[in-house]
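S., here's the first fold you wanted:
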Amino acid sequence: MHRLTRSPVWGTATTRGPRAVNADATAAYTDPSTGEVVFALADGIGDARSAARAARIAVSTAVQVPASQGPGAALAAAQRAVRADPGGGDCVLVVASPFDGGYRVAWVGDARAYSWDGASLRQLTRDHTLAQYFRDRGQVPTVRMEHLVTTSVRTARPEEFGDAETVGPAGLLLTSDGVHKALTRAAMAELLRVPSNGAQALVDAALAAGGQDNATALMAEFAPSLPDLATTPLPTIARA
């Protein structure tokens, strides 16, 4: 089993944009007994309060599942909670848990996870959209197909859950489509190369680029390991 001896630091940002409701949600939880962390980002389907509620239920449930059980188990728990809610809302979801040396990820829909090595982003997830379905079969999708998901938290079968693992990079980025459909991967990486930038810079840039959706990002990075410091006793100073 993967262990975690260093804790990542993270930040989140979100904006409602021109929508009536912000149906995106993020959550993170650190288990006080193990130090293990679980991150989650959800994007509610539709511009309605029921969508926002589904997203909040999904992320708050997912992060409470121990990281040792894996992000797939967190996704399954979120699905049970969303299905049990009488509000009837739905969402897409990505869940990630770090281990020493990398991250494990599970997802449904078009919420994304990227690894970050300090210079470039690598997409870890593969969109569950009608557009991607046709691309995989060598056909050109229409623009509308980019916004039609083929899996969601409420509807996906367990075998349809996406999963991935990455080893090596120090950072992880989770985004809703309001970020990654408004900005190219190269544009996002250029923003993140500025040391002070993070989730807020991506969300601001997505809105400035004319984004028409809620935009949300979560950025996590492992802090550099500090060398062990040797202690030297201070000399005793005698008073005269």
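And the second, which I think is the more interesting of the pair:
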Amino acid sequence: MSLQSSSPHAPVLLDEVIEALAPTAGDVIVDATFGAGGYSRAILARGAQVIGLDRDPTVQPFADAVAADFPDRFSLVRTPFSGLSQAVAGVPRLDGAVFDIGVSSMQLDQAERGFSFMRDGPLDMRMGDEGLTAADIVNTWDHGPMAHIFKLYGDERQSGRVATAILRRRAERPFSRTLDLAEVVEKALGGRRGAPIHPATRVFQALRIAVNDELGELSAGLAAAEAALSPGGRLAVVTFHSLEDRIVKAFLTERTGNSPAGSRHAPVTIDPRKPSFTLAFKGAREASDAERAINPRARSAKLRAAVRTAAPAWGRMAA
């Protein structure tokens, strides 16, 4: 029987995530990306207790609904991944943690959040309600740093041309709306040119990642989960593009003791630290053809999972 949810944001790889977490009555599980509560509801249905984390204030109505359906077994903490340790500080045992990385379809559908280049809205892109906005970046950053994030976070091959076009236009008037920026990017890249994706896709992705420090938060969240999980506790991480998956893969490769230390100038050595995780399964699992057909967001999704050992945590990975 499928566990697919009817929430406004359909949780990707839900059945596979639940299989990886294997929640049972009495377990305590962290849903580090609560969203609309799809994973949380499926975990709670197995009898476990859930601590949801989310920095997005608009998820509160969904959290209230889950709390009403599962009284005394659910709580929500307003925090990004980096606050996971503090969120579970009073928990005597943590049996699992799940992360669903990136922006949700629910957030994309809210034009006022500024995530979408297909809907007009303020150029915001914050997953929370504090800090730098996308408008701050495109209106104040110099050419070099802006082009750098477009290339690094968006894999935009013409990042310099896009940054130049943005600087030229903002000299006339600042950017404040999503469609305005999307039009400038599209013109800088020569229009659609028959491309399968909109020309602004990579730039908008890069801005979103930079605004929310998504990769830094992912690294911090993985390290926090490693420190908080009890021996036998399970970690499940769903990613949607190569930058995220590369971080998760490198983390698990290192923590399972499969990454030899050394450099091309020195002999390879084995890290003396004991593995803090064992893999739940090799490689990454992907969505079924059936799920991809009904949920386009699932097409690029990858699930990696591991089980915590009794070895001490290694701490955050070096940058």
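Why I say that: The first helix runs from residue 14 to 21. The longest strand covers residues 302-308.

Talk tomorrow,
H.
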